[in-house]
Amino acid sequence: MPKRVNWREIAVDVDAAEGDAVVARLKSFDID
Q1: How far is CA 30 from the centre of its chain?
Q2: Which pLDDT value is given to residue 20?
């Protein structure tokens, strides 16, 4: 089970391109 994610408001009221850039910087993980 992955660790609990502490959600923060990283990007609020941004356009789609900037939102995609923020998501691309987030650490990803695989669930087996």
Answers
A1: 14
A2: 82
Distance, C-alpha 27 to centroid of its chain: 7
Q: Is the pTM of this model over 0.70?
A: no
- Between CA 31 and CA 20 the distance in angstroms is 22
Distance CA(27)–CA(10), nearest Å, equals 13
Find out whether 2 and 32 touch, Cβ atoms under 8 Å. no
Which ranges of the chain would DSSP assign to H, the alpha helix? 16-25
φ/ψ of 28, rounded to 5, equals -110, 160
Query: Using an 8 Å Cβ cutoff, are 11 and 22 in contact?
Result: yes
